[in-house]
TrEMBL record:
This is NPAL3 protein. It is a multi-pass membrane protein. Pfam families: Mg_trans_NIPA (PF05653). Residues 388-408 are annotated as: Disordered. GO terms for molecular function: magnesium ion transmembrane transporter activity. It is found in: Membrane. Belongs to the NIPA family. Keywords: Membrane, Transmembrane, Transmembrane helix. PANTHER family: NIPA-LIKE PROTEIN 3, PTHR12570.
Length: 408
């Protein structure tokens, strides 16, 4: 009896064993090739996107004084940047289909390094070697650290791979670790949104945390959509599954809201702060989401995980040094705003009058004490001479006020 039942027992346990193998990380050479393909696609995409954005920015700067607000649409430079941007984003999108999410997300540091190098190349000023090194020493150190961190990320990144079929994605979506993660993220997101909207807590950390939480869901859905498209191209159609369109809608919605909060942050804070803090927060949130949803680090040894974390920290430090060395733009408004005239509404409704400026001078314009601007752009000032009635021996004021009266 036992000998007759043992083969059937083994046959019944075979599907369970096969299902268990599908979630284990691959250790063959093909999985490392997939990691390399995904990493190269991500690096290529971020590099091309950085070049594209700088080309479009260059086109906007050249046509800044044009009467036509949309004159850049007629330039080849802007359209070249647009097509390169589309190509770069397609490269980044396709990289999620090959490599784990936790490996692809930190590689966005490549775009920061590329922007720093392109910014140095396009500078028109002539620098002496010592002044050049002193001015850009932090950028060079940051670029070196970001490159070292990228190398560690690619070398010691997670190596877990599974086919992005509708069945696998649905199983991950209803797993209890991800449901618990989603519950915590929704609670944190609602609290941050309450303080941001109701309490007017416009701190950069709060806004970029909202962006990071939305971005973590964006990259999860991007990997699902890209993976299902790749599986469909390989011969197993997945585009007829409802989960594909659910992920697609979530990807578009979270990306739109993420861009909205980023636009609000860019109106309040400097782009260098947004780049460094946003990169750190978004990468951390995305890696956490990938480790929870796709189980990226399942089966990885402690050494690989520690070296991967070290690569992230080095990349964080490199991006921070690069963005810290950027010059902060000085806002300048060489004209009198009509809403800043005496008796008009105060700026930002904070009770601080913009004009008149009675700090030892009349200031014609919206700025005051801007020593960094050239002398030809500084607001014209007139000295204040207090009028003293009934006193003799007082010198005449340097200007005379003429009063015209109507003749009856």
């Amino acid at each position: 009896m036992e000998g007759g039942n043992s083969p059937s027992l083994q046959l019944q346990q075979l599907p369970l064993a096969t299902a268990a193998v599908s979630v284990q990380p691959h250790t063959d050479s093909f999985s490392y090739k997939e990691n390399l393909i995904g990493a190269l696609l991500a690096i290529f995409g971020h590099l091309v996107s950085s070049i594209a954005l700088n080309l479009q920015k260059y086109s906007h700067i050249r046509l800044a004084g044009s009467k036509d607000a949309r004159a850049y649409f007629k330039t080849k430079t802007w359209w070249s940047g647009f097509f390169l941007l589309v190509l770069g984003e397609l490269g980044v999108f396709s990289s999620y289909a090959f490599a784990p999410l936790s490996l692809i997300v930190p590689l966005s540091a490549v775009s920061v390094v590329a922007s720093a190098i392109i910014g140095i190349i396009f500078i028109k000023e002539k620098w002496k070697p010592k002044e050049f090194l002193r001015r850009y020493v932090l950028s060079f150190v940051g670029c070196g650290l970001a490159i070292v961190g990228t190398y560690l990320l690619v070398t010691f990144g997670p190596n877990s791979h599974e086919k992005m079929t509708a069945e696998n994605i649905t199983r991950h979506l209803v797993s209890w670790p991800f449901l618990l993660y989603m519950l915590v993220e929704i609670i944190v997101f609602c609290l941050l949104l309450y303080f941001y909207k109701e309490r007017n807590a416009n701190y950069i950390v709060i806004i970029l945390l909202l962006v990071a939480l939305l971005g973590s869901m964006t990259v999860v859905t991007v990997k699902a959509v890209a993976g299902m498209i790749l599986v469909s191209i390989q011969g197993t159609l997945q585009l007829d599954s409802p989960i594909f369109y659910i992920m697609l809608v979530c990807m578009i919605a979270t990306a739109i809201y993420q861009a909205t909060f980023l636009a609000q942050a860019s109106q309040l804070y400097d782009s260098a702060q947004i780049s460094s803090i946003g990169y750190i927060l978004s990468t951390t949130a995305a890696i956490s989401a990938g480790a929870t949803f796709y189980l990226d680090f399942m089966g990885e040894d402690v050494l690989h995980i520690c070296m991967f974390a070290l690569g992230c920290l080095i990349a964080f430090l490199g991006v921070f040094l690069i963005t810290r060395n950027r010059k902060k733009p000085v806002p300048f408004e060489p004209y009198i705003s009509m809403d800043a005239m005496p008796g008009m509404q105060n700026m930002h409704d904070k009770g601080i009058a913009v004009q008149p400026d009675l700090k030892a001078s009349f200031s014609y314009g919206a700025l005051e004490n801007n020593d960094s601007m050239p002398e030809i752009y500084t607001p014209a000032t007139l000295p204040i001479v207090q009028e003293q009635h009934g006193s003799k021996g007082v010198s005449a004021p340097p200007y005379r006020v003429l009063e015209h009266s109507k003749k009856e």
